[in-house]
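Is this the right way to post structure tokens for a design question? Let me know if I should format differently. Anyway, here goes:
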């Protein structure tokens, strides 16, 4: 007979999981130690939320299950933000939290996870696709199979299991895990309705969201756009769905976008939306009278489909890649309606500033990196500068979440991706605000020999909040750091190699050196505090 912890570790190994992320504590010890015994590498984080983000980065990089764990009570509550982030990004992550022994329920205990204090199973329910307290060992097989089928199913996302100490150590005579097999879900009847809509449209437009990268559907996007000669724009999170210099690409729209892409939004009579919720970050510049007549929306999640725009909507559910492949496979050599499309320069001039411009750095940065790299971009004004200016060469190599928008998420995600792809160049752009939240994860990267290159944009303020508040209210309360961060010194104290850059030449030299060193490196980029981020589209009115 073996324990529940034995069977869990074996199941994760059989699923192809190689690394797990978290912070250990008494209530989760049996499960974590068995994971190590079964050959899974344990990456101990410095904060549970970062370990959750790392598991998401691992899942995104591999396409497999990510695993994050924490002890009971506050260890579990610290994972909640990462769970919601994984849900917003459709990333299959198993979050595991500890719990006091079932036999001791009702006794006040340190780091209580029961319904008497912090009920983790209940807390994780809205932040995941499934959350369950496992009260008996003989129930665990059924519950784990159900959780895995949801996490790895058509609408991928996070799940949570809360494992009491005595359940983890309970011995079982039998345990069966069913490894989920991918099952194509194709909307055949609705796919057959696409061609007539394309044929009657005079100004169709493809809006590519982050779902293109999640589904690894970059080739299918290109085939679709080129076959019908349709211009492509990207949502902020969809940046990198297509190479920046493709003749059919007309730039990013919305917050961080260029005016040209927003003009196309307002002129189109048919949107083909690939993996985007059409949030306020994407369609903030769409005028109410310019909604398209028709909308074709590919989205595995029906929550917002047909509810955002005043357009007749055709919903294509299921996996984006599978559906596009099926539709493209049905096309014959019949003539395509000719459309005039020409490559355009959708960019804007760089700002003229007395000090270092972040936009100017980002516009040239991809030239300094190998083609096979992945860039994780944190949330803040620096993120939207990157959406606008970074020139993505390899589709799928740009990762940015403009939807749930957790500050600091890119730090952990970059670490998780590097564990999964040690030979790939992994770069993270973060800000001084994000870095002060979760920058201690630099030490996680150092201790585990994960040479990520971190670029910390330091303008000594919460820049996006400051510029937005200043414009809409005339005030900047709580947005300035009276004692600014010295990111280079902080990074060195955590064991990383560090550089400061106040000029483009200094940054170029630091980035080139970082790639040669193959060590965890932090480049502190001291930029002009007055540079205006491309975020002014989205404003609020305070009454």
């Amino acid at each position: 007979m073996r324990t529940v912890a034995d069977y869990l570790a074996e199941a994760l190994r059989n699923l192809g999981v190689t690394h797990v992320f978290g912070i250990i504590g008494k209530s989760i010890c049996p499960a974590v130690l068995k994971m190590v015994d079964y050959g899974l590498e344990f990456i101990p984080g410095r904060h549970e939320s970062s370990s959750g983000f790392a598991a998401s980065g691992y899942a995104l990089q591999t396409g497999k299950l990510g695993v994050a764990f924490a002890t009971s009570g506050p260890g579990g509550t610290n994972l909640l933000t990462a769970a919601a982030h994984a849900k917003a990004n459709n990333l299959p992550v198993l979050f595991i939290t500890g719990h006091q022994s079932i036999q001791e329920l009702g006794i006040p205990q340190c780091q209580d996870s029961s319904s008497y204090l912090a009920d983790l199973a209940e807390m994780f329910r809205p932040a995941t696709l499934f959350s369950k307290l496992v009260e008996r060992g003989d129930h665990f097989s059924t519950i784990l199979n159900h959780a895995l089928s949801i996490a790895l199913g058509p609408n991928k996302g996070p799940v949570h299991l809360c494992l009491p100490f005595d359940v983890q150590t309970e011995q079982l005579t039998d345990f069966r895990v069913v490894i989920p097999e991918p099952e194509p879900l194709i909307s055949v009847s609705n796919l057959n309705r696409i061609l007539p809509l394309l044929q009657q449209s005079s100004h169709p437009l493809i809006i590519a969201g982050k779902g293109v990268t999640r589904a690894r559907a970059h080739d299918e996007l290109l085939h679709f756009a080129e076959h019908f000669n349709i211009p492509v724009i990207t949502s902020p999170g969809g940046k990198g769905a297509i190479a920046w210099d493709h003749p059919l690409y007309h730039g990013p729209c919305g917050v961080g976008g260029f005016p040209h892409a927003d003009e196309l939004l307002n002129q189109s009579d048919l949107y083909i939306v690939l993996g985007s919720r059409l949030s306020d970050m994407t369609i903030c510049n769409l005028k109410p009278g310019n909604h398209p007549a028709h909308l074709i929306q590919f989205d595995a999640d029906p929550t917002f489909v047909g509810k955002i725009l005043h357009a007749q909507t055709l919903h294509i559910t299921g996996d984006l890649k599978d559906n596009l492949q099926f539709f493209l496979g049905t096309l014959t050599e019949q003539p395509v309606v000719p459309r005039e499309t020409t490559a355009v320069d959708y960019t804007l001039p760089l700002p003229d500033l007395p000090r270092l411009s972040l936009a100017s750095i980002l516009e040239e940065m991809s030239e300094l990196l190998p083609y096979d790299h992945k860039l994780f971009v944190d949330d803040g004004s620096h993120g939207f500068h990157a959406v606008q200016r970074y020139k993505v060469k390899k589709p799928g190599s740009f990762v940015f979440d403009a939807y749930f928008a957790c500050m600091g998420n890119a730090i952990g995600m970059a670490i998780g991706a590097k564990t999964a792809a040690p030979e790939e160049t992994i770069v993270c752009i973060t800000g001084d605000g994000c870095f002060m939240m979760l920058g201690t994860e630099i030490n996680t990267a150092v201790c585990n020999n994960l040479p990520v290159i971190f670029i910390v944009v330091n303008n000594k303020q919460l820049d996006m909040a400051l510029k937005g508040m200043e414009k809409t209210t005339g005030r900047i309360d709580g947005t300035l750091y009276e004692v600014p961060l010295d990111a280079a010194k902080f990074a060195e104290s955590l064991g990383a190699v560090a550089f400061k850059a106040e000029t483009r030449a200094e940054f170029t030299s630091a980035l080139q050196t970082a790639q040669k060193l193959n060590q965890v490196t932090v480049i502190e980029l001291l930029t002009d505090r007055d540079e205006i981020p491309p975020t002014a589209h989205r404003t609020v009115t305070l009454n």
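Format looks fine. Someone answered above. Worth noting: Residues 539-543 have pLDDT under 50 and may be disordered. The longest helix spans residues 48-62.
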